[in-house]
Amino acid sequence: MTVIFPEIKKVDITRVDIHAVDHCNFKCEGCNHFSLQKIPTFYSAEKYVEILNKLQTYCNLKEVCIMGGEPMLHPEIKNFLKKMRVGFSNKLILYTNGFWLSHYDEFLESIMILDELAISVHPELRLTEEELANIVAILEKKGLKIDIIRPHKNWGKINFFSTPSRTRICSDCYFYCLQLFHDGFLGRCPMSRVGENDCTKEFWGLIRKSFYNIMTGDIKSFRKWYNKDSDAYSCQINRPECCLYCNC
Q1: How far apart are CA 202 and CA 69, in angstroms?
Q2: Could you give the domains of the chain?
């Protein structure tokens, strides 16, 4: 008798964030990707494409967001974007602080292959509102979708608890803002990018529990990891140190 096992369906994932670089040329207080603490590190698009191909055997991935740090600091950003476009056919977004917009024409061919350009407007951006609006209008006229983001004034507040406390906000972020690392691990949120030397041993242990190794995994274990009832999810939303970081 032949036993037919039911097919395990892929998980639907809205978005995965990747870093082109870790560092940034702006020094924004409360950066949720900890760019102020990171040394210049430049990542390979080929490696990300390899990992994404593996990830998509587990899930239906709608979009990839290229960020950092400031991704436009990558010395090979033009080739990086081109290789990501070739390697990923769905929605591709670039998040930037816009420092380069005054000479956007140098990057025009590269950014036009994106599905969306998200500009996070910070005080250090040396453009007036009128200058920014004019550049945005030009790019939109050429067919590039632009999203202007103005960070929350209360971004980056960290709350401390003597005992773990379930967060009342941001729980959806653990399904929306997955962080893909260059070594093939997937984390739950930007806080996953805290380094071992940046936090307590207890907190680091919880963060590591929430990681999933894409390259050695399978669709069954991935579904379990991604599920709301999994240990990985619970340890992220019941953290003893930082639960309300994003405050979004």
Answers
A1: 26
A2: 11-149 (3.20.20.70)
CA distances from 29 to 50, 160, 207 (A): 34, 18, 22
- Residue 94 phi/psi, 5° resolution? -115, 125
Q: What DSSP string describes 37-64? A: GPPP-B--HHHHHHHHHHHTTTEEEEEE
How far is 185 from 182, CA to CA, in rounded Å? 7
Single-letter amino acid code for the residue at 83: K
Check the CA dihedral 227-228-229-231 and report its sign.
positive
198-226 pLDDT tens trace: 666 776 776 677 788 999 999 999 988 88
Name the band, by pLDDT with cuts 50, 70 and 90, for residue 242: very low
Q: Are 112 and 143 in contact (CB under 8 A)?
A: yes
Closest CA to 86 of 55, 118, 45: 45
Q: State whether residue 18 is helix, strand or coil.
A: strand
Q: What is the CA radius of gyration of the chain?
A: 19
What is the pLDDT averaged over residues 137-165?
Answer: 72
Torsions phi, psi of 243, nearest 5? -115, -30
Q: How far apart are CA 241 and CA 141, in angstroms?
A: 46
Residue 94 CA to residue 45 CA, distance in Å, equals: 13
